[in-house]
Every structure is written in C-alpha cells, then in structure tokens.
Design goal:
The chain is an alpha/beta fold. It folds into two domains: 1-150 and 289-331, Isopropylmalate Dehydrogenase; 153-279, Isopropylmalate Dehydrogenase, CATH 3.40.718.10. 37% of the residues lie in helices and 18% in strands. The chain is built from ten helices and twelve strands. It has helices at 19-28, 44-54, 94-112, 127-132, 140-148, 172-178, 181-197, 224-237, 267-278, 313-329, and strands at residues 7-11, 37-42, 61-63, 76-80, 119-122, 153-158, 161-165, 205-209, 242-247, 261-264, 283-287, 293-296. The longest helix has 19 residues, at 94-112. The protein is globular, with a radius of gyration of 20 Å.
C-alpha cells in the first residue's frame, strides 16, 4: 500500500479576505491533516498574526527556499510571499492584490517549472484588488489559461453534481455573440476528456442547456439553439461524446442525477442553481490545464474577514477533490 502523500500547493488568495483563515482551518481538519503534503503560498507573517489573533493553531511548518525539495513527511511547507505593508482584513488594497497575483504565479511554477507539487488549490481573490495592483484578469480561470496557453473549461463540482460553463465572466448582453458551434464543441470535448481522465468516469453522459427559455420553442424565442448549440452538439457527437439536449434551463437541473455533467451557456445559468443546491460544499475546477487546479466555491467574504467565523468546508472539499484527481490521473 502506497504511503505517498500528494503534494498540493495552496495559495493564500487575497490575504484581506477569508482565504488564509479557511486554509489554516482546513489543514487542521482530520480529513486533510496527515493525508497530503501542503505547500502553502502566502505571507508568513500574516499567517502567524492571523493564527494568534483568532486563536487558530497554525500547523508546524517548514520554510521553503528556492530549489529546496519537499520533505515527504506530510508536514506543511511554506513559500513566503512577504507583505511589505499592513493588510487590513475586509479592505480592498493594491498590496493584497499583488500578493494574490504573485501567489498564483508561484503556484504555476512550482508544478510546471520546479515539479514539486502535484496540484494547486487556490483561495479566493478579490478581482478589484487584483486590478488595482495592475493585473487585469476576470478571475483565476482566465489567468491560468493565459499562463498555460490552453483553452479551459470552468466546472463546479459537488459529489456527482457537476456543471461546466461555455462562457465565464462576460456580460449577459455579450453571451449570444460569444457562443458558436466551435466553442460548444470545444467545451464539450474538454469536459468529456476531464471526466474520463480526472474523475475516472468511463463513458460520461453530458446534458447541454439551451440559451433561450424552453430551448427557444422551435425558434419562437431566438435562434441560438438551431444555429449554434445544436450544430456544436452534432460536432461533439461525431467524436462519440454521449450528449443530450439542449434542455430548457428551468428544468435541466431536475435531471442532474441522470448525467455526469451539465454544460451551461453562461455564468449565472450555472452558478445560481449550483449554489442553491451546493453552496459552501462545492468546488471550482479548471479543466484543460496542464495542471490540476481547484478552488472553493465562495469569494473573499470581506464582511466576515478577520472575525474567525469563516466556514472551511468548501476549502476542505477543494483539497479533497484535488487529491482525488491526482490519484485518478495516475490510474
């Protein structure tokens, strides 16, 4: 029986949010402690101060230096990203945005360049803080896509309930023009491949959601289904991908137990039902990257940052799913 503990890099996210708190709490959870080798990326001084102020025990850790190998002990390793100014919990700032950005860049390099981690789990970022720092990205998904040069799919996961997105962070008014048969096909192909390789599902079955109410009722409410979505599904079926739809958005989630994944056309079409059914237990997974990347399903929660009341469950689930994906990728 293997005693290998998967090496998982975990970013601090925006340090002014609840990311550092849920990270430390998660690492102390019995489902995580001793089961992985965590490589935490963030400001050491902030973690220590947070631990003291909230009376949360910080796991024993090893400070990592450039070129240092990871000890196979399960002990926490820390890659320090120094905070040169004070970070105030719950406050937007460019310094917090810079730390969040730098932690993401380091997380990619520890896997792709230094080969000392098997996956990355990212704590939530504040997009406004990151943009204030001069790094203009809509979110983690877009930044990792640029770093890798790969087309990606954002997918939300809770147990066997999985929802992938065709478009991510764009305005509703732009969705129709953005989607195309080629894009639908690419998202279906990436989703299918990931379900097989990372979730160990042999013959995935995917449901596709329509853009318009009632799947347009034969063109009464738009023509995107006929001109874009159905042709994209047809392209994917030529690759022997098992697909049904397009289904009306108001009923498709009632069928979620019949499918291995649902492909939604835009952000809120996926996120509203997913979070109603799975909030604080769900995990954001980026498919199509050369690395495994997961994240909690919540944001920075500035309103409760620094108060010690943040629930770590979604962070715990993100780590557990990353661990499962590492194991499945090696089968």
């Amino acid at each position: 029986m293997s005693t290998y503990k998967p090496r998982i890099a975990i970013t601090c996210g925006d340090p002014a949010g609840i990311g550092p708190e849920v990270l430390v709490k998660a690492l102390s959870d019995k489902r995580i402690y001793g089961q992985i080798t965590p490589i935490v990326i963030g400001p050491e001084r902030y973690f220590v101060n947070l631990s003291d102020s909230l009376n949360i025990e910080l796991p024993e850790y090893i400070i990592m230096k450039r070129g240092m190998m990871v000890e196979e002990t399960g002990k926490m390793h820390l890659l320090d990203v120094p905070a040169h100014q004070m970070i105030i919990p719950g406050k937007v700032s460019d310094i917090a945005g810079k730390i969040a950005y730098k932690a993401i860049i380091i997380s990619y390099s520890v896997i792709m360049e230094y080969h000392i981690a098997d996956a990355v789990v990212t704590a939530p970022i504040n997009k406004y803080s990151m943009n204030l720092s001069g790094h203009h990205y809509a979110g983690h998904t877009e930044l990792y896509s640029e770093l890798s040069g790969k087309k990606v799919v954002m997918m939300m996961v809770h147990n066997n309930f999985r929802v992938a997105l065709v478009t991510n962070h764009i305005a509703i008014k732009d969705v129709s023009a953005f989607i195309s048969p080629k894009l639908i096909f690419e998202k279906l192909k990436l989703t299918n491949e990931a379900l097989i390789r990372l979730f160990n599902i042999k013959n995935p079955k995917i449901a596709v959601v329509s853009l318009n109410p009632h799947a347009s009722d034969n063109g009464l409410f738009g023509n995107e289904e006929k001109n874009k979505i159905i042709p994209g599904i047809t392209l994917a079926k030529d690759y022997d991908i098992n697909i049904d739809g397009p289904f009306s958005p108001d009923t498709v989630y009632l069928r979620r137990n019949q499918y291995d994944a649902i492909l939604a056309m835009y952000h809120d079409q996926a996120m509203i039902p997913f979070k109603l059914l799975s909030f604080n237990k769900g995990v954001n997974v980026t498919l199509g990257l050369p690395i495994i990347r997961t994240s909690p399903d919540h944001g920075t929660a500035f309103d409760i940052a620094g108060k010690g009341v943040a629930d770590p469950e979604s962070m715990i689930q993100a780590i557990l799913i990353a661990k499962e994906m590492i194991q499945n990728s090696r089968i």
